[in-house]
Write a structure and sequence with these properties.
SH3 type barrels; five-stranded antiparallel sheet
Length: 162
């Protein structure tokens, strides 16, 4: 219970700190990802520390490690497109080739689409076209397609952090 309590307190501190910083940023995608990742990591570290203190769990952990390796290969093959979107999303969030607010052109099944970037998340990028239609593009497509930036938003030094 102590480790779960400490992990919960640490996750709450991370969440509160992220909310405080979020109000000062124009694009919060990177901050939200880092905050969620840090919260999950705090629970994972708490569980690992607990497992190392209990000898029975230490032996069980060794057996589970062998099974997890086989399961990870199977899940990796089954979720290949989802993981591709996640990796592409990490790339788009970290490198910021297309920031929120930019007007872009890209090919779609309906032809050439001109739209404004509204959200860049880890799985999908949401665009809004001139007719106010929401265009949801998987990040693997955004990362592998040629996207033309028509109009860039003016970025201040604070807008690039996030």
């Amino acid at each position: 219970m102590v480790f779960i309590g400490l992990a919960t307190v640490l996750a709450a501190v991370i969440r509160k700190s992220a909310r405080r910083v979020e109000s000062r940023l124009s694009d919060t995608t990177g901050l939200r990802f880092a905050s969620a990742f840090a919260q999950v990591l705090s629970y994972l570290v708490g569980f690992i520390l607990y497992a190392h203190l209990v000898p029975a769990l230490r032996a069980l952990g060794t057996a589970l490690l062998a099974g997890v390796s086989v399961v990870s290969v199977v899940l990796g093959l089954a979720a290949q497109s989802t993981l591709g979107n996640l990796v592409a999303g990490l790339s788009l969030v970290l490198y910021r080739p297309i920031p929120v607010g930019d007007n872009v052109q890209l090919n779609s099944p309906k032809g050439l689409v001109t739209a404004t970037v509204e959200v860049v998340s880890l799985g999908y990028t949401v665009l809004r076209d001139a007719e106010e239609h929401e265009v949801i593009v998987p990040n693997s497509v955004m990362a592998s397609s040629v996207v033309i930036r028509l109009e860039q938003t003016s970025r201040s030094p604070d807008a690039t952090v996030g």
